[in-house]
Specification:
The complex is a heterotrimer.
Chain A: H1 2-21, H2 25-45, H3 49-74, H4 86-108, H5 139-147, H6 151-172, H7 176-187
Helix pairs in contact in A: 1-2, 2-3
Chain B: H1 3-10, H2 19-38, H3 43-64, E1 74-76, E2 81-83, H4 85-110, H5 117-135, H6 139-157, H7 164-195, H8 210-219, H9 224-241, H10 250-256, H11 259-282, H12 289-311, H13 317-339, H14 345-370, H15 386-389, H16 391-405, H17 411-425, H18 429-459, H19 479-497, H20 500-506
Antiparallel strand pairs in B: 1-2
Helix pairs in contact in B: 2-3, 2-5, 3-4, 4-5, 4-11, 4-14, 5-6, 5-11, 6-7, 6-11, 7-9, 7-10, 9-11, 10-11, 10-13, 11-13, 11-14, 12-13, 12-18, 13-14, 13-17, 13-18, 14-16, 14-17, 14-19, 16-18, 16-19, 17-19
Chain C: H1 4-24, H2 28-53, H3 57-87
Helix pairs in contact in C: 1-2, 2-3
Classes of the chains: A mainly alpha, B mainly alpha, C mainly alpha.
Chain lengths: 188, 508, 100
């Protein structure tokens, strides 16, 4: 188990770091896809199989492909300067500080570190009868949770997607009136 | 699977209590269908449907209060949602704000070749999400509602896509908003993890639920992860409110966004942030008051000073509104600190928000009416001699700015007064002193604006020819414009001279 | 010897790398990808906490986060493309027309 964890953790963290430092955005997007795949592997170690599949399908599959599309569509020729100026140096210092503080906070742990992953009981297929929202791994258990307790946020995500849909159309689609005005201008 | 257990969970999903939100979403869908059916974007028709639809909702909500304004606290949807008199008042507040944004939006869209239906549609959806945001009692609903609002605002800020300013503001808001969402989410996750941990005594079964989390935090106020998590959550909310040091996006975004959207951001978004902050610091984080009170007090002082000092040398009116809005957020943060010890300060915050809404929409309304063509580049010089050209606009502007500054006979004065009294009762003397300094500073730049608009009239006779080109003359005001501006000014005045409405709010 | 702290360490590292990227980079597309990395760090911590605490809510929360991220990215990329058409740049330091 440990060797797999180290492997997957490296697969997650190293490409993520490369994504941040590589000047080429296309390479960055591919590194990020690698990192997401590593994270899906970590989900498998945590026995969240459904989420691992979702991570690959939605994140690595749909979202990052959209990113790659846009990066290639825009075909940015400008070379990004990575030369750090004072602001960047200060910013890097702050984020490094955050990193160190975060790690200290996590590892100090406040008694959270007790259980080992191998010592945990296996995740059941379905939740126990007395605890309907206990951890379970079958897709059906996710469905019951989403459609009972989380029905309201679930509906709200529908609204969110509607806003995103309308928004993308507003921002990207040329209006008929605009085209009409342009062709009228060409005629005269 | 125990289906009865799930039925029991679903039994508290009472959709009837969310009728205003459902109505707004249905109205939005109706607008979208209208466009498809009629195949042309008749602005007047769309506007009438959106406006009268919202007025109807306001009337219906008003009628429902004949049975008594909701009192007490009711948890719904398995604890995801809580309805109190405060949330009911905020529903009315957001509906009122959305009505005014729809009105300003019509004026804005008329002069521009932009998509029309979608503006009203997104405004309505964002309003519904804002209503859910202030009612949320659990982090999942809070996060989803907050993101719905934020994504809606990304679109609205970048709405004038023919203008580079608007798009640039949209991109800045996008990056800042996404960063704050990331911080907020990581904070939520840390709290979720630590509060549900079986290794700690008193772990709770539903750590995302505010009352359960409050119970856990009361038992472990010194836990490192609790501190880190709550700090990250508060930072995420501070971004939305625009508190120092998370205020950097505000001037640029307010300047670049279409004027109606700047007003929407300034009033509704800020109000939602303040109410969420209030819910958090008096709910789940109540046991952390040992460090949240000094922290938020310091942030409030810095916010008030930053907003007022940076607004002093400004010439661009939209930046002035943005920066002075930061200062108003500072006063409201002081109210939040006061509300942690003095109960009735909640009413003071709500009253202040209402006076801020009336005064801000008055000022933004004048700005929208004056800026037919150029939106982002409105300078103070453009207001020269407004009183001679458009007496009504100048009067509405004067009332609005005076109320924002807190000049006595107006609503803004009473709003500041009750907030300061609350702070005094809570013993926040240093904070109070800085606020008074802030108010004095704000009178200076608000008065500078009024002077440009009104008092230059008598001087211009001396023939000091103005070099700056005035804005194009605004089109003649319609009856609706007059009604809206006069109505806002009169309401501001009423709240100032007869704050008996106050007692009603203070029963919260 | 695999415990919760190991997963939190990975998650904290990813969050810090993402934050670092947002501050360091000038290309808005890369900044946006770094923001996604921060959201993913939160998701990883969420799943790890759910596993070790035996609670389902965290795993359900992941659905909402992914949906929110997808919507945010769709709108964000639309804004970036529209801005690129207008200004022919995606670099942050060139987006400075909004001043005074």
């Amino acid at each position: 188990m440990d060797i797999f964890f180290i492997l997957f953790a490296l697969l997650t963290v190293v490409p993520a770091f490369l994504m941040v430092v590589t000047p080429n955005p296309v390479a960055g997007a591919v590194f990020l896809i690698l990192s997401f795949i590593g994270m899906a592997c970590l989900f498998v170690l945590l026995e969240a199989f459904f989420l691992a599949v979702l991570q690959i399908l939605v994140y690595a599959g749909a979202i990052m492909v959209l990113f790659l599309f846009i990066i290639m569509l825009l075909d940015v020729r400008e070379v990004e300067k990575l030369r750090p100026n004072t602001v960047t140096a200060a910013a890097a210092g702050v984020s490094l500080l955050l990193l160190v503080l975060g790690l200290i906070a996590v590892l100090a742990g406040d008694g959270l570190s007790g259980q080992l992953l191998s010592a945990l009981p296996a995740v059941p297929d379905y939740p126990a009868a007395d605890e309907p929202l206990g951890l379970a791994q079958k897709v059906k258990a996710y469905g019951y949770g989403l459609f009972t307790k989380y029905m309201l946020p679930f509906q709200l995500t529908g609204i969110l997607l509607l806003i995103a849909m309308i928004g993308v159309i507003v921002l990207s689609k040329k209006r008929a009136a605009e085209e009409g005005a342009e062709s009228a201008g060409a005629d005269s | 699977m125990n289906l009865e257990a799930f039925q029991k969970i679903a039994a508290s999903n009472l959709w009837g209590n969310l009728l205003p939100e459902i109505y707004l979403v249905a109205l939005c869908l109706l607008l979208l269908v209208f466009e498809m059916v009629f195949r042309r974007q008749d602005l007047l028709l769309l506007f009438r449907v959106a406006l009268w639809g919202q007025v109807l909702l306001l009337v219906l909500m008003g009628l429902s209060y004949f049975g008594g304004f909701p009192s007490g606290r009711e948890e719904l949807f398995g604890g995801l949602l809580v309805q109190t008199p405060l949330t009911e008042t905020m529903r009315l507040f957001f509906l009122f704000g959305s009505l005014l944004v729809s009105y300003l939006g019509t004026r804005f869209l008329r002069a521009r070749n932009l998509a029309r239906t979608e503006f009203f549609a997104i405004t309505l959806l964002v309003t519904a999400a804002l209503m859910l945001l202030v009612q949320s009692n659990q982090f999942v609903l809070l996060f989803v509602a907050l993101e719905t609002v934020t994504v809606g605002f990304y679109v609205l800020v970048a709405y004038a896509r023919t203008s580079g300013y608007s798009l640039e503001a949209g991109l800045k808001y996008l990056i800042m908003g996404a960063l704050s969402s990331g911080l907020l989410l990581f904070g939520i996750v840390l709290l979720y993890g630590v509060a549900g941990s079986p290794d700690l005594a008193g772990a709770v079964g539903d750590p995302l639920h505010f009352p359960s989390l409050a119970q856990f935090i009361a038992a472990h106020p010194d836990n490192t992860l609790v501190l880190a998590g709550s700090l990250l959550v508060l930072s995420g909310i501070a971004f939305k409110v625009g508190a120092v040091p998370f205020q950097i996006w505000i001037p640029d975004v307010y300047q670049g966004a279409p004027t109606p959207v700047s007003a929407f951001l300034a009033v509704s978004s800020k109000a939602a942030g303040i109410i969420v902050l209030l819910t958090l610091v008096t709910g789940p984080f109540a046991a952390l008051s040992g460090w949240t009170i000094p922290l938020i007090s310091t942030v409030a002082v810095l916010t008030i000073l930053y907003g007022n000092l940076t607004a002093l040398p400004q010439r661009n009116v939209k930046r002035i509104m943005g920066l002075s809005g930061i200062a108003h957020a500072g006063y409201l943060l002081m109210g939040v600190v006061a509300a942690m010890t003095v109960d009735w300060a909640v009413g003071a915050i709500v009253f202040y928000l209402f006076t801020y809404l009336l005064a801000s929409f008055g000022v933004f309304g004048v700005m929208a009416l004056l800026s037919e063509g150029q939106d982002a580049d409105q300078e103070l010089d453009h207001y020269e001699d407004l009183a001679k050209r458009q007496p009504l606009l100048a009067a509405a502007l004067t009332v609005g700015l005076a109320s924002l500054a807190g000049i006595p006979p107006l609503g803004g004065f009473i709003g500041k007064l009750v907030l300061f009294i609350a702070a005094f009762q809570a013993g926040l003397y240093t904070l109070l002193a800085f606020s008074v300094v802030g108010v004095v500073l704000s009178i200076y730049y608000y008065f500078g604006w009024v002077r440009e608009a009104v008092f230059r009239v008598w001087r211009s006779a001396e023939g000091a020819g103005s070099a700056t080109p005035a804005l194009p003359e605004p089109r003649s005001l319609t009856g609706l414009d007059r009604t809206a501006l006069v109505g806002l000014s009169v309401l501001t005045l009423i709240l100032g001279v007869a704050p008996f409405v106050l007692t009603w709010f203070l029963q919260l | 010897m695999l415990s919760l702290n190991a997963f939190l360490l990975v998650s904290g590292l990813l969050f810090a790398i993402g934050f670092f990227g947002v501050l360091l980079r000038r290309n808005t597309l890369v900044i946006f990808m770094s923001l996604e990395l921060m959201l993913n760090a939160a998701i990883l911590a969420l799943v790890a906490f759910s596993r070790f605490n035996g609670i389902m809510d965290g795993n359900l929360f992941v659905f909402f986060i992914i949906t929110v991220a997808a919507a945010e990215i769709a709108v964000g990329l639309a804004i970036i493309v529209a801005l690129f058409r207008k200004r022919q740049t995606v670099m942050v330091e060139q987006l400075n027309s909004l001043r005074h």
